[in-house]
Write a structure and sequence with these properties.
Elements lengths: L7 E2 L2 E2 L2 E5 L12 H9 L4 E7 H4 L9 H12 L3 E11 L8 H4 L7 E3 L5 E5 L4 H22 L5 E8 L13 H8 L4 H8 L5 H8 L8 H5 L3 H22 L6 E6 L22 H7 L5 E6 L4 H11 L6 E3 L1 E2 L8 H8 L2 E7 L17 H19 L6 E5 L6 E5 L3 E6 L25 E6 L4 E7 L1 E7 L9 H4 L8 E9 L5 E6 L9 E3 L5 E6 L5
Parallel strand pairs: 3-4, 3-13, 4-5, 5-8, 8-9, 9-10, 10-12, 11-13
Antiparallel strand pairs: 1-2, 6-7, 14-17, 15-16, 16-19, 17-18, 18-23, 19-22, 20-21, 20-23
């Protein structure tokens, strides 16, 4: 069972397809020009815009909403929805965008101290003054959003902080308040919660250390105690912040995650300790129930790695949204995989978006494949929202060296063939060897909207349909010899969905065009297929 979709517009599910400008490109309007060129060409419907605490509250108690208003205005002018990204206490495990008055007052706004007693460039989640100040600013921001945007609803969601945690030289804060928390008993409610989830990492650590109650973090969780305390402290901090803001304006709120699967997976060194990594997923869910989702920044390059994190974060109690991912052509198959193999609420890319499209319209060749993928995903996004969670959305993804792939659906099979020119060959045994690290893999989405009806987008492949035949002792002769030439289409047409969600047809493909399957090129938009069933 799929989780509730993360985003909605006008009371209906909304599939967010977007990107995030470079980190410092949202200070000034003119710095967004390159981003908007890419957003237009890629048919994005959403922009993730960073808002900085240092600009919002340059002096304590003095609030300036100029940047926020500018970003909302820019999104409205370009006809896209906005996801606001709050850079405050944390940005990538550090305090880069906190105001100067916070950074300068080390006594009041306590920093993380490592186990050698050295202060880090990270604000402590155990410090009540920092939490109070951040929460106050965030609530002022949300209050302003309610005043200026509650009717038009340009802003459809808020990312609270960015890749939170402690990144540098320690797993947990060793300051005075943090040490007291570490020595205190683990909350009984947390133990009760994880006791009901025997498959989770927190349960395993608790079980391996004697299933203790009323003991401190080290005694309860052993070697994981430090990271688990960091996760509990940070998630409580952000969860309380989100809960307070939602009392003012109830809008979807989520956090993003620097995933843990890199290098030696050492918390604090290879990823920010205490962030919403899947290892501490249940701790976050317990301590921050006001958050609507924990979301992976998924930059994994290979299929297994990418889908691993989609599976870890796409759960019945957690809608899958990918707020950051690679814009490289090498990863251009990933939006298809995320949307077709998982219940996906949205997908966003990050990284040098300002130069994807030059002023003269030239597209960066290293990102051309992703541009094509986004244009096609955008074309079918109304159906991605409509059929979310139904099991009717499917993906076919080529793996290196593969010449074909078979997909089973309700009453039908779809066979995708990957060849240098799928429209001119009948062979399905030609090994596809053209993929290099800078190249892309073939991919498509198939959405089954009726018993015999499908909508599809894809690139660099041909798709052949066969109905699933009945099991009989003697099959009819015509059931064993049907080729692509003998398959009958009631409808085979190409088009797009207009602003009202109506399908507009501009090309018919019945007849000889489909003798070797439904062929997809980079320029193909949405294919609408209605198959003619054979009567057995």
């Amino acid at each position: 069972m799929a989780a509730k979709p993360l985003f909605s517009v006008g009371g209906k599910p909304f599939f967010a397809l977007g990107g995030q400008p470079g980190t410092n490109n949202t200070y000034f309007r003119e710095d967004l020009e390159g981003f908007w060129r890419a957003a237009k060409l890629m048919r994005m419907n959403t922009a993730e815009m960073q808002v900085f605490w240092e600009l919002l509250e340059p002096e304590e108690g003095v609030f300036d909403f100029t940047q926020v208003d500018m970003l909302i205005d820019e999104c409205r002018k370009h006809g896209v929805k906005m996801i606001l990204v709050w850079f405050a206490t944390w940005k990538n495990g550090a305090m880069k965008y906190a105001p100067q008055w916070v950074k300068n007052d080390r006594k009041r706004f306590v920093r993380v101290t490592n186990n050698n007693g050295v202060e880090q460039h990270v604000l402590s989640s155990h410090c009540r003054e920092t939490k109070k100040a951040d929460e106050k600013a965030f609530c002022k921001l949300v209050e302003h959003l309610k005043e200026v945007d509650s009717e038009e609803q340009t802003v459809i969601g808020i990312q609270v902080q960015n890749e939170v945690g402690i990144f540098g030289t320690c797993v947990r804060d060793h300051g005075e308040e943090a040490n007291a928390d570490y020595a205190a008993p683990v909350p009984a409610g947390l133990i009760d919660y994880i006791e009901q989830l025997p498959e989770c990492d927190a349960y395993y650590a608790w079980d391996m250390n004697g299933r203790k109650r009323g003991c401190n973090w080290a005694e309860t969780f052993g070697r994981d105690g430090e990271e688990f305390l960091s996760a509990y402290s940070i998630s409580s901090y952000i969860g309380d912040e989100a809960a307070a803001a939602k009392k003012i304006y109830d809008i979807p709120m989520f956090v993003n995650c620097w995933v843990q699967g890199r290098d030696f997976e050492n918390p604090g060194a290879d990823y920010p300790s205490g962030g919403p990594q899947h290892k501490v997923f249940e701790i976050w869910k317990y301590a921050a129930p006001a958050l609507d989702a924990l979301c992976p920044d998924n930059y994994e390059l290979d299929y297994n790695g990418f889908t691993y994190y989609c599976n870890k974060y796409g759960r019945e109690n957690n809608p899958l949204y990918i707020p950051e991912s690679s814009s490289s052509t090498f990863c251009s198959w990933q939006p298809y995989a995320a949307a077709g193999e998982h219940d996906l609420s949205g997908y966003s890319i990050m990284g040098r978006m300002f130069n994807i499209v030059a002023e003269d319209g030239t597209v960066d060749e290293s990102r051309l494949g992703m541009v094509q993928s986004f244009r096609q995903i955008s074309d079918i996004s109304p159906l991605l929202a409509k059929y979310y969670g139904t099991g009717k959305i499917h993906a076919i993804i080529q793996t290196p060296g593969a010449s074909f792939k078979l997909l089973h659906m309700d009453g039908w099979k779809a066979l995708a063939t990957f060849t240098p020119n799928p429209s001119t060959t009948k062979a399905m045994t030609q090994v596809e060897s053209r993929h290099k690290p800078e190249g892309s893999m073939a991919a498509c989405l198939i959405i089954q909207t009726g018993e015999n009806e499908f909508y599809m987008v894809g690139n660099e492949l041909a798709v052949h349909f066969r109905e699933i035949q009945p099991v009989t002792e003697i099959w009819p002769e015509h059931a064993t010899v049907r080729t692509s030439q003998s398959i009958s289409y009631l409808v085979c047409e190409e088009g797009y969905f207009d602003e009202n969600g109506e399908f507009v047809v501009f090309n018919k493909r019945n007849g000889d065009s489909n003798d070797y399957g439904i062929v997809f090129s980079p320029k193909t938009r949405v294919m609408h297929i209605v198959m003619d069933r054979c009567q057995y």
